[in-house]
Design brief:
Length: about 260
C-alpha cells in the first residue's frame, strides 16, 4: 500500500517538528530535572545551578555550586561523535575569568563510568585546602595548581580506574605551620598494571622532593614512598628532623601504606 503524497509530507513535517522541538529544548528544563533526581538519591552531592540559559545541547550556567564549591560561568556543548562509542559526551569550558578555570571533554558510558580526556583545570592552593577534610594542624598555602589529564576513567563508584596526565603546583608556598618557598612541584600521573601511580618531584625551592604514591582502585590499598630534604631553610630542616635521622645523602624517608575506605 502506497502512502498518498500528502501523507508523506505530513509525516515529514511531523518528524521535522519533533526534531526542532528536541533541539530547542531549554537547558534549564533539563538541568532542573537533573538536580531534582540527584536530590532523591542517597549520598548524592548537593548541586545548585543558577542562571541556566541556551538549548540543552549548547548551554550555559552562570553559577554552579557543588557541595559548597562554587564554579562558573560554565558552558557546555553536546558531542554527538561520542554516540559512536555508546556514550553521551559533552565539551565543557569554565571561563578564564573564573577560578577554577579550565576546559575538557567528558562522556558517560552505559554502565555509569565517566570518561575524561583533554582536561585542563586551574585552581588556587587555598581553594583546594578549603575542600580537604580538616587537617590535624592548620595549613595555609599559596600558588596555583594546574591539572592536565590526557585521559582518565572514573568508575560508577567514584574511584579512578585509569589516569594519564600531570599535576603542577606553581609559585608554591607555605605560610603555616611553617614558612617555606616550594616554588614548583610536579606529579606525573599514570596507570600501570598494579594500579595508579603519581611520581613526585620538585623544580627548585626550599624542598628537595622525590618519590611516588600508588593506589590500587580495586582494593583501596595505597603506598606512599617519599624522599625529603631541606634546601637553605633552617625552619624546614628542623621540621624534617622530627621524622628521625636522615640517610647518608641527607634525605628523610617517609613511607606509609594503608587502605582507603571504599564507597
Amino acid at each position: 500500500m502506497r502512502l498518498k503524497p500528502w501523507l508523506k509530507w505530513l509525516a515529514a513535517g511531523a518528524a521535522l517538528y519533533l526534531l526542532l522541538l528536541f533541539l530547542t529544548l531549554p537547558a534549564a528544563r533539563l538541568t532542573g530535572h537533573l538536580t531534582a533526581r540527584l536530590a532523591e538519591l542517597p549520598q548524592a552531592p548537593a548541586l545548585r545551578l543558577q542562571g541556566v540559559s541556551g538549548p540543552w545541547w549548547h548551554g550555559r550556567v552562570e553559577r554552579l555550586q557543588l557541595e559548597g564549591f562554587v564554579l562558573g560561568p560554565l558552558q557546555w556543548r553536546w558531542r554527538p561523535t561520542a554516540l559512536l562509542r555508546g556514550r553521551f559526551g559533552l565539551s565543557l569550558e569554565l571561563e578564564a575569568a573564573s577560578v577554577p578555570a579550565g576546559r575538557g571533554r567528558l562522556a558517560v558510558g552505559p554502565g555509569g563510568s565517566l570518561y575524561i580526556d583533554a582536561l585542563d583545570l586551574e585552581l588556587t592552593a587555598a581553594q583546594l585546602l578549603q575542600r580537604l577534610p580538616a587537617l590535624p594542624v592548620p595549613v595555609q598555602a599559596s600558588g596555583r595548581l594546574s591539572l592536565e589529564l590526557t585521559r582518565a576513567v572514573v568508575g560508577p563508584d567514584g574511584l579512578p580506574r585509569e589516569l594519564q596526565g600531570q599535576l603542577q603546583w606553581r609559585e608554591a608556598g607555605l605560610q603555616s605551620p611553617l614558612a617555606a618557598r616550594l616554588e614548583h612541584l610536579v606529579a606525573e600521573l599514570a596507570s600501570e598494571e598494579a594500579g595508579l601511580v603519581a611520581r613526585l618531584s620538585d623544580r627548585g625551592g626550599d624542598l628537595d622532593l622525590g618519590g611516588e604514591a600508588r593506589l590500587d582502585p580495586a582494593s583501596g590499598r595505597y603506598r606512599l614512598d617519599l624522599q625529603l630534604r631541606a634546601r637553605d631553610n633552617p625552619e624546614l630542616r628542623d621540621s624534617l628532623a622530627l621524622m628521625g635521622r636522615p640517610d647518608a645523602r641527607g634525605y628523610h624517608n617517609l613511607r606509609q601504606s594503608g587502605r582507603l575506605p571504599l564507597p
